[in-house]
Amino acid sequence: MNVLHGLCFALLLAAPLAHGSSQDPGKVIAGWIEKISLVEQPLVLKAKLDTGAKTSSIHAINIEPFMREGERWVKFDLLLDDLDDKQHTLHMERPRVRRVRIKDHDGVDDRRAVIELEICFDGRKHVTEFTLADRSEYIYDVLLGREFLQGIVVVDPDSTFLTQAHCPTP
């Protein structure tokens, strides 16, 4: 009887991950590294899913704030490696959503601009915030943090590449 109760309990816990609808698709199980794509670009990228980071981050250089019609904007270059490790430079301008203070591992504060990008993760489009940061010292150009992951993903640290990178075209 204990085995049966354990099995029923395990099935109940898994239910929110297994069921969903188009309005509420539920959480997906994803590995600690997944493929994503930028909706407006045909690039497939590797992204690290990091539950220890609050905000998502993307590799950017030449970050320059400016004003447009009284609003704060930022122009920047994204340096992104595709799945074949070919580097692409994307010149972009976006409204600055906010600024964040990030404390580096050495204790130094870093102020970063935050912008929104539309990405495709697990076959669904998501608009999410990214800090613009020089990630040249890191393996992955894209880091997806808790603010993006919550309500969407359960991370399996033993796995990689469990989701699809492309969204269906209408």
Detailed description of the structure:
A six-stranded mixed barrel has the order 1-2-9-3-8-7. It has a single domain (24-160), classed as Acid Proteases (Cathepsin D, subunit A, domain 1), CATH 2.40.70. Helix content is 12%, strand content 53%. It has 170 residues and is mainly beta. It is globular, with a radius of gyration of 18 Å. The model is unreliable at 3-22 (pLDDT under 50). The chain has helices spanning 2-18, 146-149; strands spanning 28-38, 44-49, 56-68, 71-81, 87-95, 98-103, 109-121, 124-133, 142-144, 153-160. A hairpin with a 5-residue loop joins strand 1 (28-38) and strand 2 (44-49). The N and C termini lie far apart (49 Å). The protein is built from two helices and ten strands.
Topology:
Blueprint: H1 2-18, E1 28-38, E2 44-49, E3 56-68, E4 71-81, E5 87-95, E6 98-103, E7 109-121, E8 124-133, E9 142-144, H2 146-149, E10 153-160
Parallel strand pairs: 1-10, 2-9, 3-8
Antiparallel strand pairs: 1-2, 1-7, 3-4, 3-9, 4-5, 6-7, 7-8
Which labels suit this protein?
170 residues, Cathepsin D, subunit A, domain 1, single chain, 53% strand, 12% helix, mainly beta, 6-stranded mixed barrel
- Outline type: globular
CATH superfamily: Acid Proteases
Q: How many strand segments?
A: 10
- How many individual domains? 1
Q: Portion of residues in helices?
A: 10-25%
CATH architecture call = Beta Barrel
Strand order of the largest sheet: 1-2-9-3-8-7
Structural class: mainly beta
CATH topology: Cathepsin D, subunit A, domain 1
Structure annotation, total helices = 2
What's the main sheet like?
6 strands, mixed, barrel
